[in-house]
């Protein structure tokens, strides 16, 4: 049948990419005979590569037993088991999980849970309806979370539709944010003060939550928190009774070498809620989750009131079966250890190969989550103007040993900055 091109693409015309006919290990095979090494796991998703037999079998088994049932009327074993797994993975810190389909949905759910928490308190605080996010954030494409985010090209066309109850403070990004002569401690104090000032500006008891990616992802290119940063901003949240929501849709579920990115020493806080997605189901099915701290769950339960939220595909049994199998493979095959070891090779390799180039400003990341930031001038750190050219050039020139290497050009411009990053985040099964 002649291709009718009925699927709507971003450019409304022709899809710029090739047709993928099969996928094995960490490679995609296209109909024009190319073999592509997926060095970004899709968009930091396919952490087990593309043909993990155990995960495939788990999805098939679930499909043949209970493919779907109404999540409000019935429960399924795979969803119950995945929620248990996720809660247990936090060693008693989180006590409930909501299962959704995508990162955007899950962050929306976290915002609604935060709002509900304050409405259900013994002394309700209905005036809390403002969210503070960060410059350079990306929390998803649906309208609620788009108002938090800061990915200019994706946000600008829809600004008139967005909620006005969100504002942003600087993110922690030493390459861009540290002032000459300032050390990490002083930087952290300054960022915490900026957040405190923003609480004061908005009205300290109007803020529901501060929302941050533990490690900045697609819009800011692996912006790493310095030691003490999250402790300091959490203290500000606590001072004003607001919640801390960490978005680990991109950096979570093993990508940085611990299952949750907030478990690293230098993060050093337990959030009130954490959102995961992408690597949770590794692309074998769309699945995401919000994990809630025990103290929130306590207030919900004590109120005797429910959560006014429902979606057709919540706790989807096939997606849950995929997520559970992925997590069992990571545990049984000790892939977190593999991420740490391979992450060391990747860091050394990237720095040795690229750091001396005049257009490479910074190389940063953790585990198998790395970004290369390009600048027009290394001294002034002036970025190139935003463009998608880099992506196209990488596709044209990224040939090595007979295969192409697919990389992910993040960035594209957010308020106050417009530069290019390259994300390098290969599957956990990558070899040296
Ligand atoms: N949050 C973060 C940190 C993300 O990186 C993304 C996607 O890139 C999202 C949320 C949205 O997830 P999704 O695209 O699955 O809706």
TrEMBL record:
GO terms for molecular function: pyridoxal phosphate binding; transaminase activity. The keyword Transmembrane helix does not apply. Keywords: Pyridoxal phosphate, Transferase. The keyword rRNA processing does not apply. CDD domains: OAT_like. It holds the Pfam family Aminotran_3. InterPro entries: Aminotrans_3, Aminotrans_3_PPA_site, PyrdxlP-dep_Trfase, PyrdxlP-dep_Trfase_major, PyrdxlP-dep_Trfase_small. GO terms for cellular component: cytosol. NCBIfam families: PRK07483.1. Belongs to the class-III pyridoxal-phosphate-dependent aminotransferase family. PANTHER family: AMINOTRANSFERASE, AMINOTRANSFERASE CLASS-III. This is Pyridoxal phosphate-dependent transferase. It comes from Immersiella caudata.
